[in-house]
Amino acid sequence: MLRPGGILSALVLSAVLGTVGAQAQDNGPIKVGFLTVKSGALAAGGRQMEEGLKLCVDQHDGKMAGRKIDVITADTAGQPAVTKTKTQELVERDNVDVLIGPLAAFEALAIDDYIRKVKVPIISPSAAAEDLTQRKPNPWFVRAVGTSAQAHHPLGEYAAKDLGYKKIAIIADDFAFGHEIASGFQRVFKDNGGEIVQKLWPPLNTADYGSYITQIDPDVDAVFAAFAGGNGIKFLGQYRNYGMTKPVLGSMTTVDEGILKNMGDEALGVISAGWYSAGIDTPTNQAFVKAVRKAYGSDPGYYTVGAYMACQFLNNALEQVHGDVSDKQAFMKALRNVNIDKSPYGPVKIDDYGQPIMDIEIRKVEKKDGRLQNTVIKTYPAVSQFWTYDPKKFLAGPVYSRDYDGGGEKK
Amino acid sequence: MTARSGVWLVVMVVALVLVPVLIGSPFYVNLASQVLIYAILAMSLNLLVGFGGLTSLGHAAYLGFAAYVTIYLTTLAGFGQFSGALIALVATTGLAMLFGFLALRASGLGFLMITLALGQILWGLAFRWVSLTGGDNGLGGMQRPHPFGIDLGDPNAFYYFALCFFLVAFAGIALFVRSPFGHSLRGSRDQPRRMRALGYNVWFVQWCGFVYAGFWGAIAGILYAYYNQFVSPHALNLMTSAETLLMVIAGGAGTLFGPIVGAVLVVVLKNVVSAYIARWVMLLGAVFVMIVLFMPEGLVPGTTRWTKLALGRRRRAAGGGPGEATGTAAVQERSS
Amino acid sequence: MNFWVIQGLNGLAFGSLLFILAAGFSLIFGLMRVANLAHGAFFMLGAYVGLSAIDNGMNFWVAILIGGLTVCVLGGVMEGLILRRLAGQPLAQVLVTLGIAFIIADGCLWLWSGDPRPLPMPSELQGVLRFGGLIFPKYRLFVVVVAVCLAGALWLLLERSRVGAMIRAGVDDMEMARVMGIRTSLLFPLVFCLGSALAGAGGVLAGPILSVYPSMDTDMLPMALVVVILGGVGSLGGAFVGALVIGFIYSYGQALVPDLAYVILFLPMVLVLTIRPTGLFGRRLV
């Protein structure tokens, strides 16, 4: 029974379990620690990440650059303190060579200092927080997805130039991801002569958007809605339910394929931007989409493709170093040097801060063969996280936040 | 408290001191440090729940608040490690004074709800007041202190650092509970009317208990800040409060060892078992249900009862005294 | 002017939803003194079961019935097997109801994969009503009607039926009711099943507005508690008025003082409870 002495015996027992299989060997498998979420509110995204990673490893027959790939999965439960413990478990107990994960930005930030201390390369398949590759770049960090604003700078230009919108209301989840997306959109939209007449910030766990929807200024040309997780479903449903007819522009996650599959006609016509769409019509992407559909029965979205690409980055870097990860500096340099011509995203290379430069698609939700998809209507090639701004000036400028008031500098 | 629990105390201390030597692996030593931190938090909540009869669902407030203040002061406001921690301790205790003043207006479910609401308000502030708290991204960049030149970045050193606080907390709480004041706190739980008739100010007794619990909650929060070197609104959310409450009840509310056992149970399930069992949340729920079915008073008192039961039977078989037998019967009746 | 009317309607609709959510909790707590912290999980489970019923070709109304019945049975089992033994042990009740909430939440994640899902509303309630320049969704007005009918039906049950008289006697003074020969062993499971069924059916009813997603339980449970506490525990009328007050505060508050959006539900509650610990309408708190 668990009496005080039980603390000890429980821990001793776990320690015995833990020492089994420690010590990486030079020619043994490459150990990949995978931080995902399998329990709690974020589990749907975590499952999609797991699917993306598994597909990639399977496509390589479990081998990269001649070495076996051993994936060790840990459930962070979407809690920063658990994320830290799990990272320690992977690094100190399992001696992983590289980490892929975690899912949420606050999780990535919670382990940022630890990663710097233990110097283990980490590839982010999802966390989009701007400063991870901007004002606080971590030398051991490389990202396989866009920053929050990366896809929404071009959307701002598209809304002003191609769609000719003059006045827009923004409604976005009230957390850093929402703030950063909204700020990026606002900045470029205002640069191109547009005006943001209203910004609404419903809390992340808002049950009813009714009182926000009814506040939207009736004179705007369109509404820019930036939501994450399941909030896109809730918002779009309630928006249409209130009989709103103003066009909706969305963030990448508002109409992500991961939730689009469960949406109805309320999503039709939403124009959004992203570094990916299942609708990208290249042979590489169509083969990828087909494989995902076959394995998991649905289209790949943000998390699936993020983890898949994180794994492709790993493969690319391993090939550069011929499977030798013993020199961590050299391996990290290779990760920062990833250059892929053909991927689901299209061509990808990495900038000086560890952030991919990639094509950004403007997408429109359409119904095709009875299912909703994000049809690509325009592509902005090779977009940097800094858009067309000078990186130094960008970093010296105000941080993208709830109170960001920039944009319109170069009218 | 009997000689037997004195023996257990010695066993516990010796075992705790030997933990790093016995397990060796830094990962598990770190995990043991976390158990100690949550045990301090659970022990402090136990003052309210177990000894004061006040079920609080907002105890994460002290953990999170102290952690935020510590990290904010030492990383952003330029305070030293010691002064930062000291101010965090004072500020959190002050917060407990205020919260106690508000929450003790009610009792029972009303008390639970005010503590829950106060906790949620604090969570909302942490989430919304981005300029101070970093919003959902939280605050990081915290360095562990170097008291007397010892580097607490080392897992073993940190473990012993946390262990010192744990032992002081345990002693502080045990002495408090056994002091005349502790007796009056229990009296205010069991017989509030009689206590009033005897001239006690029940409200004041409970308020002092509340503030004392907040003080130890703050200690846990400062250690949490040092351990994680990071804090975000998760440290303040309802789930953290609920987990702490479950640790106390599952281990045995109103006992000294109960919250510690509860902390071990939850931390190990969450961090170790989850690596082997995907549905660990369900398992945790099932464990709670099982505890209620077989030991509704909690693991520690339940185990004691079962052990006595087994011993009583053996003694009866050997022709033990009748007093023992009736005692057993009474216990059995209570459990059915 | 328009603003006040439309936000008032929003508040009314949301308050109605909260009443449907909280009624069962209030009923159970009033009689049995059990704070069922699995109530939010019951609500979510009902929504998921209703969703599956619709996926399997049943219509919305049948889905409400199935959602309610499933949770009703679960509640009955929980009362009969566990809660019955725990009378007067509030800590064990907290532990077991939260434990069951964990099991249900993780079970829903397991069975329904955690993808957020919209719950389609019946076609006859889609669309909006227009009156004098105002636009308001039909479905939300329907929710208001349901809440009013539910309040009326519960009032009739409690005030005008024999079972209701027994329940009221139990709420007022359990010991005396037992002395008078009221069989609480029958009354308790009945009330617990009814309260659970309301949670389950309420989840399906809320689905078209809230959608169905994994943390629905922890989002909604605090709201139910707020309504019940503010209105006064065990008072159905209190819960009704409490729900509407909260609905209005929520709706106007989010529009007028967006900076307080996070504390809009909890700040008023702390104020009310510190000034009047029995809630707005409660006679006593236990």
Brief characterization of the structure:
The complex is a heterotrimer of chains A (411), B (336) and C (286). Chain A has helices at residues 4-19, 43-59, 80-93, 105-110, 112-118, 152-161, 176-191, 210-213, 231-241, 257-260, 283-296, 302-320, 328-336, 391-396; strands at 30-36, 63-64, 67-75, 98-100, 122-124, 141-143, 167-172, 195-200, 222-226, 248-250, 271-274, 339-340, 348-350, 356-368, 371-383. By secondary structure, chain A is an alpha/beta fold.
Q: What is the number of strand segments of chain C?
A: 2
Query: How many individual domains of chain C?
Result: 1
- β-strand percent of chain A reads 15-25%
Q: Helical percent range of chain A?
A: 25-40%
Q: What is the averaged pLDDT score of chain C?
A: 88
- What's the story with the biggest beta sheet of chain C? 2 strands, antiparallel
How does the helix and strand content of chain A classify structurally?
alpha/beta
Number of domains of chain A: 2
Count of separate DSSP helical elements of chain A: 14
The CATH class of chain C is: Mainly Alpha
Q: Flag low-confidence runs of chain C.
A: none
Average pLDDT across residues of chain A?
A: 89
Q: Approximately how much beta-strand content do the residues of chain C carry?
A: under 5%
Q: What is the terminal separation of chain C in angstroms?
A: 43 Å
Quaternary state, please? heterotrimer
Tell me the Rg of chain A in angstroms: 22 Å
- Tally the helices of chain C: 11
- What's the SSE pattern of chain C? HHHHEEHHHHHHH
CATH 4th-level superfamily of the largest domain in chain A: Response regulator
Topology summary:
The complex is a heterotrimer of chains A (411), B (336) and C (286).
Chain A: H1 4-19, E1 30-36, H2 43-59, E2 63-64, E3 67-75, H3 80-93, E4 98-100, H4 105-110, H5 112-118, E5 122-124, E6 141-143, H6 152-161, E7 167-172, H7 176-191, E8 195-200, H8 210-213, E9 222-226, H9 231-241, E10 248-250, H10 257-260, E11 271-274, H11 283-296, H12 302-320, H13 328-336, E12 339-340, E13 348-350, E14 356-368, E15 371-383, H14 391-396
Parallel strand pairs in A: 1-3, 1-4, 4-5, 5-6, 7-8, 7-9, 9-10, 10-11
Antiparallel strand pairs in A: 2-3, 11-14, 12-13, 13-14, 14-15
Helix pairs in contact in A: 2-12, 6-7, 12-13
Chain B: H1 3-23, H2 26-51, H3 60-76, H4 81-103, H5 108-128, H6 130-133, H7 155-178, H8 180-190, H9 192-197, H10 202-228, H11 238-251, H12 258-271, H13 280-294, H14 299-317, H15 322-335
Chain C: H1 2-32, H2 39-55, H3 60-81, H4 90-112, E1 128-131, E2 134-137, H5 138-160, H6 162-172, H7 174-179, H8 184-210, H9 216-231, H10 236-256, H11 266-275
Antiparallel strand pairs in C: 1-2
Pfam family, one (chain A): Peripla_BP_6
Signal peptide (chain A): 1-24
Family (chain A): Belongs to the leucine-binding protein family.
